Amino acid sequence: MDIAVSEHVTYLNKDREEEFEKVFKAHFKSLHAYARTIVRDDIMAEEMVQNVFCRLWEKTEQIEIRESVSGYLYRSVYHESLNYLKHLKVREAYQNYAVNNMEHSNNTSHNLELHELEYRLENALKELPEKCRTIFQMSRFEELKYQEIADRLQLPVKTIENQMGKALRLLRIKLVNFLPASILLFFLS
Predict the structure, then answer these.
(1) pTM of the model
(2) Which of 7, 9, 34, 78 is the most exposed place for a label (fewest CB within 10 A)?
(3) pLDDT tens digit sequence for 25-37
(4) Across the strands, what pairs with 5?
């Protein structure tokens, strides 16, 4: 990579795409293997490395590398991976909290509200166009990623993204008067 060294500070030159590509090719496999040992998921490891390279490319003028480029990349992948794992732990803790709260609140009004929510959600889903409903259900209920849905339905990922956006907008409109804002954001974002 075109590197300017000034008082032990390295700057990457964004104008040299070829050099950036060389750095990417030289380090991607080893960084991916490293990330995989941390996150224990091949696809997410690839995403961690790609995030690091994207951020490096986008903020190349603002990033000062005070070590080797390789050292900087490994440290960045390490932090990116740890942030991802922290995010997973927070999400899991919230899900456990929500499940425990639902299990422990057996009062009649709560059960009625839950039943009403299920009824309204079911009706709102029925009103969605078929493709939109199918994509939403695959994403939210089967927990598939957009790429997996696209592969199964043999559609472009962009179509999946557009249909999910449409489904979320329509469901927000249908359920806005029923759900508190925080719950609405959790289920429909």
Answers:
(1) 0.47
(2) 7
(3) 999 999 999 999 9
(4) 10
